[in-house]
Amino acid sequence: LREETGRGGSAAIHATWQIGTKLAVERPVNQFPLHDDDRPAVLIAGGIGITPIRAMAQALKARHQAFELHYSSRTPSDMAY
Fold it and tell me: What is the DSSP string of the chain?
């Protein structure tokens, strides 16, 4: 999202990046790994935070493990999926 007053530099990114801009990136770090036992999981996400949670939900579904997903945002248009 382009946020003029945001802390992440999104306005600068939107103003300067274009198709073909090369970026140096690192692999993401998972600070919240899924447990690997049979306990059911509760996944909670807000706004764009659903992106890594969605991958977790897919992994749990593939393992046939019970889980709940709670996803909210300020408005429905702020929801990614």
Answer: ---TT-SS-HHHHHHH--TT----------SSPPP-SS--EEEEEEGGGHHHHHHHHHHHHHTT--EEEEEE-SSGGG---
Q: Is 51 in contact with 80 (CB distance < 8 Å)?
A: yes
Q: What are phi and psi of 26, to 5 degrees?
A: -115, 160
Torsions phi, psi for 72 (to 5 deg) = -140, 165
Phi, psi of 28 (to 5 degrees): -65, 155
pLDDT at 75: 87
Distance of alpha carbon 56 from alpha carbon 33, whole angstroms: 9
Kindly report, residue by residue over 10-32, the tens digit of the pLDDT: 888 888 899 999 999 999 888 88
For residue 57, the model assigns a pLDDT of 95
